[in-house]
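Researcher: Here's the sequence for the chain we discussed earlier.
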Amino acid sequence: MDNFHGYDAQAGTIKISDITSRENNTEILHRLKNNDESFASMCMCNEEDEMDDNRYDDSINYCPESARDLGWLGYFVGNNIHLTNLTCFRLENFNGIIELFCRGLKNNNSIQSLSFCDSDLSECDIFRFMVPFFRNNNTLTELELEECEMGAEVCRSLSLALGGCKHISLKRFTLTDCEIGDEPLVGIILALSMHPQLEELGLQGSGMGRNGCVALATLLRWRATELHTLNLSYNGIDDEGVEALTLALANSRHLHTLALSSNSSISIRGWWALSTFLSAPSSNLQELFLACNDIGDEGVVAFAGALTKNHALKKLIIYNNPSITAGGWAAFSGALTKNHALKKLIIYNNPSITAGGWAAFSKLLCDTTSVNKTFLSNHTLHVLARPDGVGLPSDLVSSLNLNSSEAGRKQIAMIKILTHHNDFDLQPLFEWDFKVLPFVISWLEAASICPTNFEKNIRRRKLSSIYQFVRDMSMMYIEVCTSHR
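Model: Thanks. This is the structure I predict for it:
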């Protein structure tokens, strides 16, 4: 039945049982036809996929049995007003007949999320038939392609479909593990310029290279100004690509998540460009993913320098970077004493971090060599290595747990000082003259309300401070008077 109006003529009288013999299909068609408000998600797959794959609820799996079946499914989906999520799984099983489904789908205006998973689209150019759907639908906010084989012709069709949208609604586009290559990706990126409201863009495992980065930089600079998440992991991005991207990202006010994991072609030149971006006062980046790269000591030192100036980054993923040596990690941990923004640092699977390396991180979080050094320690970082803290020294775990408490940085510093310093050495403070004792007593009064699981001995500490002040300050006064004579 090629004429869509033919479906209209029969829709009122046709029996669903005459369209399909499968019980689940019958139930789904009834719910679509009757505009069941509770039926918001559907997955189209074949019978074998339904049995083998557990990612979808069987109650939403529709397994077409014939071209007629598929045509009626498209008709009922096209007229439905409550279906919001549609997933298409292994579409190669419907080569030659998918157009029948798309003829009905073009009338749908309720689908907000459209996904294509594990499909060989090279022989099933569904996007050529879906151009009317993209042009007419004004509610589509998410488009996802995952592990799909796509030839050059399919990529062109997808670009045309994206570029032909009349309505500005798309906010999330992801192309995951499709390996389409750099040149075809350029066309898709250019088509996304029709969607300036885009907030999340994922091109991980898409085969992106230098040309794709240049096209993306143009998109970011002039059109996708609302973007807050950008995932470019598992690609072939090189130094020139990173430089183009960072120049464009410098003016991105909303970007808070950037993923560049598993881009082994990036060398120190690219890492310096990225660290320069992080150093800029305009950088609002909050999460940075750099796992499984070849960063090396020069790269990690560059990032260390950037973090001394950065006040926005809260999460850094840098695990599985074996080219960073113990010296690189030592320099990195030392730089974090001047950073009070970073909260999570994931660095596991880096064998060069030995006992000495963990000791450097312990000193970062709680330097016990003096009261002042303890006060100036890092009281913000609370996740290190693995998120669950497994394999870390006990003193490091203790400091991380304290930093993650609800107490503010001021109280955390007080607790660390009370824990590791029974008596205060007042001599470094004597330059304040007689102001030092009231200051110390006031500090101890404030520390008395800190939540701790040990005896703070505030009264004893006060008496010790008074005694030290009277003893040492009087001796200093006598020395000064004697020298004046």
